[in-house]
Protein 1
Amino acid sequence: MDDKIKLSSKQEIPNIKKRIGATTYEVAMHFSTSSKESMEDKIERLIQNDCIDLK
C-alpha cells in the first residue's frame, strides 16, 4: 500500500490522493476563513458527538 500523500500544486485548494488497493481516493480540502473554532475545538466536538451517538 502506498502511504504517501500527494498534494496538488496546480490548484489553490489542496487535494490529497491516496491509493488503497485498486481504488484511488481524492479529497479536496477547504477551510473557512471566518471560523470561530480552532481545529482542536472541532475535533473535540466531533469526538464528543460520536460518544453521545454511541449511547
Note: The CA atoms of residues 9 and 16 lie 11 Å apart.
Protein 2
Amino acid sequence: MSRPKKATWWKMFAHQRAAIESVSDKSAGEGLKAAFRYFDGEDVSAESMTTQAFTVFCVIRPYIDEARQDYERAVEIGRKGAERRWEKDSPPIAPHSPPIGCLREAEAEAEAEAEAEAEEESEAAKRPARSPFPPPGVGHLEPTGFGPELSVAFDEWLRYKQERREAYKPTGLKALISHVRNQAEIYGEKAVADCIRLSMSNGWKGIVFDRLEKAKARPYPSGQKRKKTWADLAREMREKQDDN
C-alpha cells in the first residue's frame, strides 16, 4: 500500500475540554466537522458556522496546522536521505570490486541504516521543542478569567509569538494577561479577541489595542445596547463582593 500523501492525524489535549464543554453538543459537533473539513484541505470560514462552533474549530485548528508541518518536515527529511543514498556522482565499480551480490547486500544495509536515521529524525521533529514558557491554554502564571472566545484568541496569540521566536518571559506574560483583562472590561471580550486576530492576520509584532478605542468611537445602532461579556459579569461580581 502506498504511503498517504498527507498527514493522517493531529493531537488533542486535555486543556481543550474546557472550551469545548462550554458550548452545546450541537455546536461542538459542528466545530469538529469543520475541523475535519479543514484537515482534508477544504475551505472553512467563520461565516459558515455559529460563533460557538467556530470557537471549537479555533481550539482544534492550531494542532492541525502543527500536524501538517510535522508531516512536511518528515517528507523533506526522507527526500534528503534518499538523495544521499542514491548520489548520482557515486564512483564507478573498480575492476577488483566484490561480487555484485555483496554490493547489493551492503547497499541494502546502508539503506536500512539511512531509513532508521530518517525515522529517528522524523520522530524528533514531532516532539515539541522544550521551552521555559507554558504551552497554550495551560500553565499561565495566573488564572486569566477570560471567556471561551477570548481564551482561544489569547492562546492563538501566544502560539503566534512563539512561532516568531518572540515568546513572552514570565513577567511580560503576567503583564499581558492583566492588560488584556483590563481592555476586555472596557471594550468587551469579543472586541479584544477580534483585535488579537487582526494583529495576527496582519503579521504585527504586538496587539493593536488602539484600534479598540477607534471602534468604540463608532456608536451602536439606535436602540441597541452592547451585550454583557464574561468580563462585565466578573466585574459586577467583584463590585458586589466589595459592597458586602
Note: The chain has nine helices and no strands.
